[in-house]
């Protein structure tokens, strides 16, 4: 709470310096990534039962093992590295490395792109404990390399990249930003900034009669994917997150947008409450992701829901390999697997997009 108040005061000062208003994307970047105070830069626990949310690697090691199956053909073709963006607790890296070792496709380097010092420390501890001598192959990077071959993995990264909030009311398009009113952070709508206008290119926002419509656009995510695509000389970007293609993202019935906040496994409605102490996320526009990659010469190899991807890459076989059918261990692992593939859990909501350059057809496409 004390750290959040320090960050709130810092944000309020910056809003004043900017003339009394900033786009929501600026606020979201400060709330999540401000050094030492932002949600992903501070020291509070974020992942797992003691944190604010649980991701697939925390649910079961079968997730990482299946990702390893999916990327192994690309590593065989390119002889490149694995680059993981936002590695969370480090469990995914450990699970992927162990399975790649079993498949005989270990990369020379497993690089992790991580902005949080506290998460880096946790990743180092986890990988050392879970991956043994394989941990020697892991390195940490501060920025995307200028060029690389191999595979980029990003599980639940796109959803926490800053978004602009835009909307329509009475036939006009506006951008929703943050101001300071009576000493508190507050919302204020203004005409769209140049960044928002650029992000709206190719998007037709619904105009509802007598009702406001608010949603998110993703210029930061587009720029990030474009940077990765330019750096990828041969190989694949494998991005996993919750989201929709554009035709089902910007629709009238999603009139409140998809912005969500999480604090201690509970949904928080107000993104301006406790900046730095809670996660802020938005569903992904996967059409924008594909456009950004294709503009840099990558090909969209596959786009499917998480259930289809995991089943196509043999997650059921991984289950049978690791536990005797009918045993208590098998039943527990099967129950965890259900969370990943069932439509009412993560199976349909989460999508997987594979973007590649210079590789042959993958067996699971």
TrEMBL record:
One of its GO terms (biological process) is methylation. The keyword Methyltransferase applies. Transmembrane segments: none annotated. SUPFAM superfamilies: S-adenosyl-L-methionine-dependent methyltransferases. Keywords: Methyltransferase, Transferase. One of its GO terms (molecular function) is protein-arginine omega-N symmetric methyltransferase activity. Pfam families: Methyltransf_28 (PF02636). InterPro entries: NDUFAF7 (IPR003788), NDUFAF7_sf (IPR038375), SAM-dependent_MTases_sf (IPR029063). The keyword Methyltransferase applies. PANTHER family: PROTEIN ARGININE METHYLTRANSFERASE NDUFAF7, MITOCHONDRIAL (PTHR12049:SF7). This is SAM-dependent methyltransferase, MidA family. It comes from Tepidiphilus thermophilus.
């Amino acid at each position: 709470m004390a750290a959040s108040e320090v960050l709130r005061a810092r944000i309020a000062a910056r809003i004043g310096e900017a003339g009394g208003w900033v786009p929501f994307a600026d606020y979201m970047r400060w709330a999540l990534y401000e050094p030492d105070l932002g949600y992903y830069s501070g020291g509070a626990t974020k992942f797992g039962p003691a944190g604010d949310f649980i991701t697939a690697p925390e649910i079961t090691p079968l997730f990482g093992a299946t990702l390893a199956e999916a990327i192994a053909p690309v590593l065989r073709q390119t002889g490149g590295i694995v680059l993981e963006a936002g590695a969370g607790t480090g469990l995914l890296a450990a699970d992927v490395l162990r399975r790649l070792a079993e498949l005989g496709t270990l990369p020379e380097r497993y690089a992790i792109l991580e902005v949080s010092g506290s998460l880096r420390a946790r990743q180092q501890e986890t990988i050392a404990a879970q991956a043994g001598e394989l941990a020697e192959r892991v390195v940490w990077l501060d920025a995307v390399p200028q060029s690389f071959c191999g595979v980029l993995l990003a599980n639940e990264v796109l959803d926490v990249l800053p978004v602009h909030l835009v909307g329509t009311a009475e036939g006009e398009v506006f951008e929703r930003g943050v101001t300071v009113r009576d000493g508190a952070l507050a919302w204020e709508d203004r005409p769209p900034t140049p960044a928002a206008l650029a992000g709206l290119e190719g998007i037709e926002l619904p105009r509802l009669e007598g009702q406001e419509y608010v949603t998110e656009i993703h210029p930061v995510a587009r720029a990030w994917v474009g940077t990765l695509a330019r750096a990828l000389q041969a190989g694949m970007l494998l991005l996993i997150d919750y989201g929709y293609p554009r035709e089902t993202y910007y629709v009238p019935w999603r009139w409140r947008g998809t912005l969500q906040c999480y604090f201690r496994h509970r949904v928080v409605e107000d993104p301006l409450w406790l900046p730095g102490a809670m996660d802020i996320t938005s569903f992904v526009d996967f059409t924008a992701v594909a456009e950004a990659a294709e503009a840099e010469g990558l090909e969209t190899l596959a786009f499917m829901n998480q259930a289809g991807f995991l089943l196509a890459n043999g997650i059921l076989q991984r289950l049978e390999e690791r536990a005797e059918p009918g045993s208590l261990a098998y039943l527990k692992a099967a129950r965890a697997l259900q969370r990943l593939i069932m439509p009412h859990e993560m199976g349909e909501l989460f999508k997987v997009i594979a973007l590649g350059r210079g590789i042959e057809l993958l067996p699971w496409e």
